[in-house]
């Protein structure tokens, strides 16, 4: 690495260490880099800033954010929880299992970890504690299970990775199903083993066929949302971009006219709130794109690739190093910034080790998803901590068993790529 590389990296890390907002850190570093290390006019940076937001792939993110907010404001979330309860709540630790299943169902619609934490935490944390579940287990479960929101498609992280790599978004979505199911099964097994002999934990009565059918009937319109999204995408009826719009329209119709849990007067408030969230995301994307442009002009990704290749020859060792690095980055940086900044840096290295870009996109997404619940900057830690009125240290201890489960799954998908790539191959998205 050259002196300029170290200076650019030091400026960026220095800004972040002073708690300056991420997008400002990225744009400030890019601006200084342009002025100091290039002879190019700053107008080029301004053009990069505006062109970064003129990307059709971002439409998917914006509409899935809106869809998540619609469900949070309405009753879709509540009905999904009822369905999950009917399926598993009668088992030992069943209410905990219902919590992780509900996170999986909600994540298959919203594409966001934060939305899943906010939507389900308010329901599940009081319910679990009321039925005798330890507070530490409850907080750990509802802090980590929402990670399924960015692992199970649609995923905001996957959308952004597809945007920078040109990997098939539909194929990348397909890679997320198996890890998501494995995490849910892992948490369910852990919960069963933990509570199978705990008599003080309240267990729901086993629902009869009539009760189960009644719950499924009540939750039918909610359950049809992920069916429509994925059925439409993988049957070729509409693209992933169009699916986001279809999901929003469907959610509005269901909440306004079928469930009648939302008033027309709320539509403006929900839309404005979604627009604010989307604008925040776009600003981060713009800053990351400007910084990425500087890296490209300075040929920094190429030099990093040469350095890595000279030190590491084994693909297994490379993947291990990438996992360690991404887990560390995830402690301090959100998935949007990390994907936009590190994606272009890592991509040139993958060909040398014969690693599928689609496979690495999944690895990167899972790593950064775990970052949502790792201190010191894990957003989910602070949200559930505020809900349960617990400090960061308490919540950080509570998440450890669940993070271990997710890291085991991460290790499996890292070194068994064919396991997660067979679905994209089956549907023709990967040769």
Describe the structure.
Helix 7 (113-130) packs antiparallel against helix 8 (135-144) and helix 20 (357-370) runs antiparallel to helix 23. The model has no long low-confidence stretch (mean pLDDT 86). This protein has helices at residues 3-17, 22-37, 42-52, 58-73, 76-88, 94-110, 113-130, 135-144, 148-151, 156-165, 169-175, 177-195, 209-218, 220-234, 240-258, 264-297, 300-311, 315-330, 335-352, 357-370, 379-388, 392-398, 400-415, 417-426. It is globular, with a radius of gyration of 22 Å. 78% of the residues lie in helices and 0% in strands. The longest helix has 34 residues, at 264-297. It is mainly alpha-helical. It has 24 helices and no strands. The protein has one domain.
Please give the structural blueprint.
Blueprint: H1 3-17, H2 22-37, H3 42-52, H4 58-73, H5 76-88, H6 94-110, H7 113-130, H8 135-144, H9 148-151, H10 156-165, H11 169-175, H12 177-195, H13 209-218, H14 220-234, H15 240-258, H16 264-297, H17 300-311, H18 315-330, H19 335-352, H20 357-370, H21 379-388, H22 392-398, H23 400-415, H24 417-426
Helix pairs in contact: 1-2, 2-16, 3-16, 4-7, 4-10, 4-15, 4-16, 5-6, 5-13, 6-7, 6-12, 7-8, 7-21, 8-21, 8-22, 10-19, 10-20, 11-24, 12-23, 14-15, 16-19, 17-19, 18-20, 19-20, 20-23, 21-22
Radius of gyration: 22 Å
> Helix content range of the residues, please?
over 70%
Number of domains: 1
Q: How much strand?
A: under 5%
Low-confidence stretches: none
Number of helices: 24
Structural class: mainly alpha
Number of strands: 0
Order of helices and strands: HHHHHHHHHHHHHHHHHHHHHHHH
């Amino acid at each position: 690495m050259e002196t300029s590389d170290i200076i650019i990296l030091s400026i960026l890390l220095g800004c972040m260490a002073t708690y300056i907002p991420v997008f400002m850190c990225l744009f400030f570093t890019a601006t200084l880099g342009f002025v100091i290390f290039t002879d190019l006019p700053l107008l080029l940076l301004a053009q990069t800033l505006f062109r970064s937001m003129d990307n059709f792939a971002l439409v998917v993110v914006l509409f899935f954010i809106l869809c998540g907010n619609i469900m949070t404001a309405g009753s879709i979330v509540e009905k999904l929880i009822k369905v999950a309860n009917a399926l598993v709540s009668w088992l030992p630790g069943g209410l905990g299992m219902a919590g992780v299943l509900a996170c999986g169902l909600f994540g298959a619609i919203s594409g966001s970890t934060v939305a899943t934490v906010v939507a389900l935490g308010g329901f599940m944390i009081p319910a679990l504690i009321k039925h005798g579940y330890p507070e530490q287990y409850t907080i750990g479960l509802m802090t980590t299970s929402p990670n399924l929101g960015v692992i199970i498609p649609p995923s905001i992280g996957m959308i952004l990775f597809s945007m920078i790599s040109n990997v098939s978004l539909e194929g990348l979505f397909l890679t997320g199903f198996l890890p998501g199911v494995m995490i849910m099964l892992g948490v369910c097994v852990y919960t069963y083993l933990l509570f199978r002999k705990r008599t003080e934990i309240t267990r729901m009565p086993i629902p009869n066929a009539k009760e189960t059918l009644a719950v499924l009937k009540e939750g039918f319109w909610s359950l049809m949302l992920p069916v429509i999204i994925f059925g439409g995408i993988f049957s070729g009826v509409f693209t992933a971009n169009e699916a986001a719009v279809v999901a929003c329209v469907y959610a509005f119709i269901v909440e306004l006219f079928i469930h009648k849990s939302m008033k027309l007067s709320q539509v403006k408030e929900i839309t404005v709130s979604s627009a604010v969230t989307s604008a925040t995301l776009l600003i981060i994307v713009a800053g990351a794109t400007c910084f990425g442009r500087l890296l490209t002009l300075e040929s920094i990704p190429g030099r990093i690739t040469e350095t890595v290749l000279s030190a590491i020859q084994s693909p297994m060792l490379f993947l291990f190093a990438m996992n360690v690095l991404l887990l560390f980055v995830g402690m301090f940086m959100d998935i949007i910034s990390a994907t936009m900044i590190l994606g272009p840096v890592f991509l040139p290295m993958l060909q040398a080790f014969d690693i599928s870009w689609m496979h690495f996109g999944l690895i990167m997404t899972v790593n950064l998803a775990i970052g949502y619940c790792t201190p010191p900057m894990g957003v989910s830690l602070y949200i559930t901590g505020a809900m349960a009125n617990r400090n960061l240290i308490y919540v950080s201890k509570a998440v450890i068993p669940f993070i271990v489960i997710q890291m085991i799954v991460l290790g499996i998908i890292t070194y068994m790529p064919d396991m997660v790539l067979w679905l994209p191959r089956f549907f023709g998205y990967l040769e």
